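quick one, 169 residues, struct below
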Amino acid sequence: MEIIVPLVAVVFIVFGLVKKVGVFDAFLSGAKEGLHTAYMIAPTLVGLITAVTMLRASGAIDMLTQLITPVAERLGFPAEIVPVAVLRPISGGGSTALLVGILEKFGPDSFAGRIVSVMAGSTETTFYAIAVYYGSVGIKKTRHTLLAGLCADFTAVVFSVLTVRLFFT
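---
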């Protein structure tokens, strides 16, 4: 398996040489474009990271979690998954830390463990994705993207619970 990455690189180089493409020039052009993209999205990412840090430090995410938990429990959602569901669209790292905590506390084969595992695979870090993709091409107005992304995340959370309930209980 360790040979795959170097092998793919060699295949690209050989393919470029066969097609008479300046392989090194194409590489430099791609690297330059990558650096330009990183330069374009850096301010957006700094703003996003600052906002996420402020939300977590202020306790706003905890307050939102406390607001949602009683409703979620009434609908049959385990209270343990609510913090992950709230944090996932905002912070991938933060939600992954919560997921690991749930897996350590309840186990991967528990109801909550299975739900957060399915959630991790079916939800998106919506705010980060919008910041990176729109920031890289200079789009300032996202129109309906945020609402559509959050609706998709909500749907993924609901169906994570329903799917685990259907297949594992």
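The mean pLDDT is 90.
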